[in-house]
Amino acid sequence: MIKDFGAGVGLLLRGFSLVFSSPKRVLMGALPAVITAVLMIGGWVLLVTNIDSIAGWLTGFADSWSDTWKSVVEVAVGISVIAAGLGLSVLLFTAITLMIGGPFYEYISEEVEDELGGVPDAEQIGWWRGFLVGLRGTLLLVGTSILFAIPLFFCGFIPIIGQTVVPVLAVLINGYLLGIELTGIPFTRRGRTFKQRRQILATRRGLVLGLAVPTYLLCLIPLAALVVIPAAMAGGTVLSHRLLNGDRARA
């Protein structure tokens, strides 16, 4: 697992090398991310400006409590909502960026795979199909993330565990889901289904986490996703190429 995680980090670094070796790839990868960044910033402004109302609505059960305890609960819930939104925003950012920039990332993925030997009889995805595939994947992955986020949300109130174990689990879970999203284009070009993608990636979870967890954490830095997502896509393409060509030992 540790060896695979390190190899996954190496795939992300290789992704940076592959993207930044061509100014055109950098530009193609950044454009969809810029559009998504504008949309996400708008969403965050709405969330932050209305967080008091949201926290008050979620803590209606505490209306009969003393003002002190009610305020404590509202603050705790508000922080939890912001934290959950932050975790989901990385997945949403990647998913929306991939839906908007399907042809851009298909171009990067195709160029990377050509350098690796190409894909015989590769399917051309196109913007519309890429959008639909991305939308379906987004709904499934975000839905899965929310299912995990609910118990983690309540575990966050447990002393010590809520401040140590829970954040780590949240990063690992959301990171792995992000890894599934990053490999969508190369798998689809080979005619593989979403279910098949999950099954194949599950055989090398450490490798997927090594690629996706650093990507997830870097994307928490404002505007870093503009360069991180294209590099992670290239790294995800290399990962997919190796696993789908049976070269699992070298992957």
Automatic annotation (TrEMBL):
- Establish whether keyword Magnesium is in the entry: no
Compartment(s) of residence: Membrane
Superkingdom in the source lineage:
Bacteria
Q: Does the keyword Transport apply?
A: yes
Q: What is its main location?
A: membrane
Q: How does it sit in the membrane?
A: Multi-pass membrane protein
- Which Pfam families does the entry link to? EI24
Q: Where are the transmembrane segments?
A: 26-47, 75-100, 139-162, 168-187, 207-233
Keywords linked to the UniProt accession: Amino-acid biosynthesis, Cell inner membrane, Cell membrane, Membrane, Sulfate transport, Transmembrane, Transmembrane helix, Transport
Q: What is this protein called?
A: EI24 domain-containing protein
What organism is recorded for this protein?
Lentzea sokolovensis
